[in-house]
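Run log // design_07
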């Protein structure tokens, strides 16, 4: 886990073997610290106390220890008070490690363990002068009752995971992980282990790039056989360096890396960048070595970038770090860039540099055995030098956390992502630290989190350069200004194709003979027009004269505009000199105009930014409470099924009806029958008219195959229908619903990050075309409204060809209830409601405008939707 200062430590349950470590912790703790913990001048633990503290039952008595390397530096425990749901909690943190947030993290883990064991409250006794410990409880987000007696504060507080407590935990997590990345990206000193005078070696390239870029601190080459490397005094080993080392860049053969990590541990290096390959990308054996490497580094307080990575870059003039294999890096700017691929990283950096996109920092994670894109999102969330985040992703290590972080970051800073491998599996190097996420899940994850998804690396930079230099549009209305009617028409076509709105009936054309003043005036009129949200400028070279004056006119208008201006300027890409508003170091400042090789690419980038701006303007939304939901009743249904079938199974009809009823979901009256007379009896109990359906999978939802008979008005009609439907499977007798639009609502379980709620219209054509929309949990009221309107067939619900519009509010309510069910009951692995019949807003079926006419559900041991619990790093083993 990551401590508050960004260093890493190892937290685990206590064992009897920790007795010596606990004795050492007591010996290193000050007299005051021991007094605060034990309320007396205890010098050492008795054998009886030592045995009691290290032997716990992990039920009523639970303890965790925190280790740095092999040294035990903190311990926390709770003991249930006999006959109650309360437990007393206490901590001891070594003086040298106090202030690192270890008490807060121990409390977080202890509370999670206590909740699992049915404990509802913690009690603690703290000396009044121990203000730091009182602050640990107060800052955890729990509301504590205090009483005072004889210089002791008695604290009692419920440990339910409230929204406030969860928010506090997430905030602590963000600060800790951000600091851990800051330690990597802003080192005061760097050692290159494997530095070489051979130009063909990786260690030579890394050292050369560090020196050429002008790193602000000392650089120490490490080479056991050379006195100097590239003119810099070298050291035989990292432990021979006389000064502190913040960052070690490792470029030695894979079989030597473990020894280097051990030497870095002894040297107390803060972080590692492992350029070397030969680990997880080579197969299972390499992944095992990689996991051991990361576990060793973390236990000693180090974060690891890589292995098999390109390295990392910080453009901050106070740091100037190029610890990478890229010989040239982009200038200073406002874009944070994360890429998993080491091999592709050099090309990506060169592409950014050619586009004149300035970076704040860049990290290539390679096999991503430790540091991941989630860690960088935590850092960039509060980094004042980063305003835009670009991600080149091959996989997700923790998709649920990514969704949460991206949603938070995206509210203030746009996150743009290109995801490779959409039609294939994981690359070998990522197989040990990643999960394969289906394409539909990736789309739902990005949509829910507000991530700007692009399809190609070219689009990644198109959107990135626009966001880095131009404001967000306030709407979708686009004006087109240029000196070519033909090009203006092409741009207008692209605007319409991308779902944007032309702001005027025709593009503004100054003509091939128009001069710079004409161009400036036309642009200014477009920018000043209140009916315009964005401007696309198209400039082709005139037959006579140069382009500099036209570029100056375009730049002048852009720098004074609060609306985005993009251009196709002489078919250049990036920020050409004519359109650059230079900063102190010559890099483009805000107001610079991005240029695109074709107008279509300019409009695509603008459309994606407009969609993001619309998401960002949208209120966050709320998750309804639904006071009529009976969650315990739903849990009883699931628990009863799993008690009979621990591996899980499909619910019977009566079980499904009970489950849905607990969540206020209207299911039509249904009876399962096995012969014609049972069908007649069921029909008379339900009331005519009824529907008769086969339960055969190949006939379900296929009325064209004769498996469903509608509007049966008497016993004879039921008997005739029963005889006509292919035999061999039970039948369902169901209440006859009024006509309505058939829709489908589903919960689809994704083991990697949780449930998706899907919605679409019913019918073979819709199934064939895959016209379904997906959203990830949690689902807010605004998410539900978007989900209903997302399928292409939505007009059928909205008064298509003069029909009466369906009750969309009822559909949204159903989606929110289904989402609540999925959130409450992770054991429900799949739920399909089909058909869901939706009528007009005026009640049309027993006072309802929506009814569920059929459904299936499967329960089983939960997969990815269980709450992730207290914060922890992804396990390397």
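design_07 sequence
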């Amino acid at each position: 886990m990551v401590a508050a200062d960004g260093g890493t430590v190892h937290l685990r349950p206590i064992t009897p073997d920790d007795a010596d470590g606990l004795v050492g912790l007591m010996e290193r703790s000050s007299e005051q610290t021991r007094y605060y913990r034990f309320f007396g001048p205890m010098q050492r633990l008795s054998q009886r106390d030592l045995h009691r503290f290290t032997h716990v039952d992990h039920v009523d008595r639970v303890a965790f220890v925190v280790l740095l390397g092999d040294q035990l530096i903190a311990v926390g425990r709770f003991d249930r008070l006999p006959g109650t749901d309360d437990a007393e909690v206490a901590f001891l943190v070594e003086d040298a490690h106090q202030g690192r947030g270890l008490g807060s993290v121990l409390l977080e883990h202890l509370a999670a363990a206590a909740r699992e064991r049915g404990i509802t409250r913690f009690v603690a006794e703290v000396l009044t002068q121990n203000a730091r410990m009182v602050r640990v409880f107060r800052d955890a987000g729990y509301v504590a009752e205090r009483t005072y007696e004889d210089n002791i504060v008695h604290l009692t507080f419920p440990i339910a995971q409230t929204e406030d407590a969860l928010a506090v935990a997430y905030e602590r997590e963000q600060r800790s992980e951000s600091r851990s990345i800051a330690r990597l990206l802003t080192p005061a000193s760097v050692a290159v282990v494997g530095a070489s005078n051979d130009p063909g070696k990786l260690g030579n390239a890394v050292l050369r790039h560090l020196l050429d870029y002008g790193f602000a601190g000392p650089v120490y080459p490490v080479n056991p056989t050379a006195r100097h490397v590239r003119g810099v005094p070298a050291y035989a080993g990292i432990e021979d360096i006389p000064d502190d080392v913040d960052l070690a860049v490792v470029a030695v053969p894979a079989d030597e890396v473990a020894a280097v990590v051990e030497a870095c541990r002894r040297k107390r290096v803060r972080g590692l960048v492992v350029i070397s390959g030969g680990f997880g990308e080579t197969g299972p054996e390499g992944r095992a070595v990689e996991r051991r490497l990361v576990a060793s580094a973390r236990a000693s307080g180090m974060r690891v970038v890589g292995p098999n990575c390109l390295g990392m870059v910080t453009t901050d003039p106070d740091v100037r770090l190029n610890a990478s294999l890229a010989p040239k890096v982009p200038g200073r700017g406002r874009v944070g860039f994360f890429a998993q691929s080491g091999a592709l990283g050099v090309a990506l950096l060169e592409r950014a540099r050619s586009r004149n996109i300035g970076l704040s920092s860049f990290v290539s994670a390679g096999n991503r055995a430790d540091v991941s894109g989630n860690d960088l999102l935590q850092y960039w969330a509060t980094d004042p030098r980063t305003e835009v985040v670009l991600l080149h992703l091959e996989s997700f290590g923790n998709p649920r956390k990514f969704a949460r972080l991206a949603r938070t970051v995206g509210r203030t800073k746009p996150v743009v992502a290109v995801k490779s491998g959409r039609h294939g599996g994981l690359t070998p190097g990522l197989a040990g630290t990643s999960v394969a996420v289906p394409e539909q899940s990736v789309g739902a994850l990005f949509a829910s989190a507000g991530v700007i998804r692009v399809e190609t690396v070219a689009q990644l930079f198109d959107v990135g350069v626009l966001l880095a230099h131009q404001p967000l549009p306030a709407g979708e209305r686009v004006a087109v200004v240029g000196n070519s009617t033909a090009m203006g028409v092409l741009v207008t076509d692209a605007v319409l194709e991308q779902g944007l709105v032309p702001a005027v009936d025709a593009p503004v054309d100054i003509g091939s003979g128009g001069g710079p003043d004409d161009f400036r005036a036309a642009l200014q009129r477009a920018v000043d027009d209140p009916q315009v949200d964005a401007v696309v400028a198209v400039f082709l070279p005139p037959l006579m004269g140069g382009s500099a004056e036209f570029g100056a006119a375009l730049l002048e208008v852009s720098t004074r505009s609060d609306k985005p201006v993009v251009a196709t300027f002489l078919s250049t890409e990036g920020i050409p000199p004519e359109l650059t508003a230079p900063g102190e170091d010559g890099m483009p400042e805000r107001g610079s105009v991005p240029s695109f090789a074709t107008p279509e690419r300019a409009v695509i980038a603008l459309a994606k930014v407009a969609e993001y701006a619309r998401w960002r303007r949208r209120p966050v939304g709320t998750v309804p409470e639904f006071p009529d939901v009976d969650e315990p009743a739903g849990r009883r249904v699931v628990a009863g099924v799993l008690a009979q079938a621990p591996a899980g199974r499909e619910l019977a009809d009566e079980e499904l009806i009970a489950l849905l009823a607990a969540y206020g979901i209207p299911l039509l009256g249904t009876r399962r029958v096995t012969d014609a007379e049972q069908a007649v009896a069921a029909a008379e109990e339900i009331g005519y008219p009824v529907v008769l359906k086969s339960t055969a999978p190949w006939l379900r939802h296929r009325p064209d195959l004769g498996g469903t008979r509608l509007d049966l008005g008497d016993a004879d009609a039921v008997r005739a229908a029963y005889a006509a439907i292919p035999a061999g499977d039970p039948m369902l007798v169901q209440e006859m619903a009024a006509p309505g639009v058939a829709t489908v609502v589903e919960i689809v379980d994704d083991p990697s990050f949780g449930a998706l709620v899907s919605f679409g219209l019913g019918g073979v054509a819709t199934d064939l075309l895959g016209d379904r929309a997906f959203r990830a949990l949690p689902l807010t009221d605004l998410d539900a409204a978007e989900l209903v309107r997302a399928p292409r067939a939505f007009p059928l619900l909205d008064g298509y060809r003069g029909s009466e519009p369906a009750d969309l509010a009822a559909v949204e309510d159903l989606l929110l209830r289904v989402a609540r069910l999925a959130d409450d009951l992770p054991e429900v692995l799949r739920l399909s409601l089909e058909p869901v019949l939706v009528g007009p807003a005026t009640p049309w079926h027993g006072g309802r405008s929506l009814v569920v006419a059929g459904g299936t559900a499967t329960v089983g041991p939960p997969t990815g939707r269980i709450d992730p619990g207290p914060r922890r790093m992804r396990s390397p083993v």
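Residues 428-437 have pLDDT under 50 and may be disordered.
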